[in-house]
Structure formats: C-alpha cells, structure tokens
Amino acid sequence: MLADDFFEQIEVQFEQELPFVAYKKPDTLVVKGVLQKDKELHYSRDFTESGFVFAPFDAENDAFLLPFENAAIITHDFVKTEDLELSQNSIQSISTQKDFHVNLVQKGIDAIAKDYFKKVVLSRREAVETSDNNPIHLFKKLLNTYPTAFVYCWYHPKVGLWLGATPETLLSIRGNRLKTMSLAGTQAYKGKTAVVWKEKEKEEQQIVTDFIVDSLRDSVGQVDSNTQHIEVSEQHTVRAGNLWHLKTDIQLNLTPGTKTLKPIIDALHPTPAVCGFPKDEAKAFILEHEGYPREFYAGFLGELNLKETITRNTNRRNVENNAYGVSKTVSNLYVNLRCMQIKDEKVHIYVGGGITRDSDAEQEWEETVHKSQIIKRVLL
User: Top-level CATH class of 3-85+96-379?
Assistant: First the structure.
C-alpha cells in the first residue's frame, strides 16, 4: 500500500472516532495499521487473546485489546521523509514542577537510605502547548526521528490517544524462543562513538538485569517444572534517536506448548527500569508520592499472540510446497517509554529517571529537563 493511502485510512479512522493503532517495530521497515471495525471496548484478561494489547503501569487496572479478528490490517513500507526536519533549538522548560520533583526525588533518596528499597524510578508529567497536535503528523515525525525504536500511535474514543517511540522491549516470543532486555542509563548522543558510563549507571543496569533474570527463572517455573537455561549478554551501549542507553540482552527457550504468558508478564512488569527494586515497595512509593496518575506511561503495548506463517519454500513456482508453511505464535511487547498523551487540546509528555542511593535531586531534575527537550523537538 502507498504511504498516502495508508495515512489517509488512519485519518479517516480517527475522524470517525474508531479505535486503531499504527506502529512500526524496530526490526522492520513495515508500518502496520490495526483498524477496529466498531467502537467496542475489548480487554485482555489473561494474555491468551490475540490482538494488539495496551496495558497500564498499574496492573490492577484494565489492559485493553484491539482484537486482530475484529480489525482490518493495513501496511506500507516506511521510507524516511527528509522534509520532516525537526528544530535544533533548545527548548527551555517553563514548568513550575521543579520544587515538587526535587522534593520527590529527595524523599526517594531518603527512603533508600532507610532501606525501604534499593531503587525507585520517579517521573513527572508536563503539559505542552503546540500549534499542531494532529496525531498523524506527530506519528510521522516520530517515525523519522526514531528509526530504531518501536514507534506507535494508539487511539480508542473511550480510553484516549497516545503516541510514543520506545527503545525498550518487555518481551519478544517467536514460537518457544523468548527474548527480553534490561535497559538503564541515559546519555545524550553528541556524535561520538565512545561512551563512558558512571558506576551509578552500571549499578542501576545490573539491578535491572538481576531482577529480570530472577523473575524469569521464577515465572518460567510456574509454567515449566524444568528450570531453563537463561542466556545473558554483557552490558553494551545502544543508540535510540538522540540518546545512548546501556543494554543487556536476555534469552531463553520455553517448553513447547506453553499456553499462557501471564506468569511471565506479571513477573516482568513493571521492570526496575520504570518502577524500581524491590518492585512492590518501589511501586507503592510511586503511587503514594508521585502526585499524578501514570496511566499508560511505563505500561506496555504490542502484538499479542499473533499467528505468523512462514512458507518453507521461497520458490514461487513450486506452488505445492508453498502450501506447507510453518505456523508460529508471535508476541512482541514493548515498555511504554518516551511517550505522550494528547488530551484537552494539549500534549502531555512523561519523563523520569532511576533514583539510587548516590542520586542527586537537583541533577535528577536537570536530567528530566533534558529528556523533555528532546521529546519537545517532535512537537515543533
């Protein structure tokens, strides 16, 4: 499908107030659209359903689903548009949130000093005035700005409108092979290839990695009595748009016939990269002190139990062999970071950072300002 036709169909869906999601995964140039045929609100109760799932930070709240069986699926091949240039100007924050956020971070540091938890991720929400809050235009800018991220635009008239470009995978499953990652640490990309990470950032990254490995080992035990070997890579640096991140890859094989992802998702979400560690204590602190509802920020989203068929023979002349394909169930779920919500004619952006014992409240505030400036470039 031509790009113009693709985006026109998305525009029509939005104008008719019908649910949809448009997205591009980081490992492909294909942009997909899932256009629900009615306005009904569907839910994912145990993650055995098939569709595009959109889940909140707080798992006590509902996770929504756009069922594949009740939607039209459209695609087009993404080509970067050179004329969608973004402003290089630095945007100074005019937020009045500084005192609140600095005090919040200090409360987190004090709680860590009292051994309530080892790490907590604290964030803030900022409303931004913009001359263009058309979600399709913003989605195109995100596609051009973050080619290696999971980029999406999600809408349901009964829930809201969200966009984002996240660098973090919650989990990816193809058949019986499960892949995930731990991602922590942030530095601005300044055109150099050599990145030096502080011990605080390495420690934060290791906390996330250890939590994910331990959680996977426990959760897989609930669906498979045989402990699986978990492969863990070394820490390495990856680029996402204008930022560097510290990353560790984690993989394992599930037992064939594993029926439900719920124990695994419950164990992984929310990760220390968006919540803290230990998870329950850090999450309780966030819900009590952060001062606003995260909703879907730091939740997760993506393809859930998609049936994918790959033909065994790529020779199109051999029609008989092409009829025999390998069918696999695929799930690709991403943590909803670097996201924004369009609400009440404003764009609400979400920024935060991991707080550890050695954090400095003023520096943590400045880090959120820097992150907000990067996101705001897309809004100009």
Answer: alpha beta
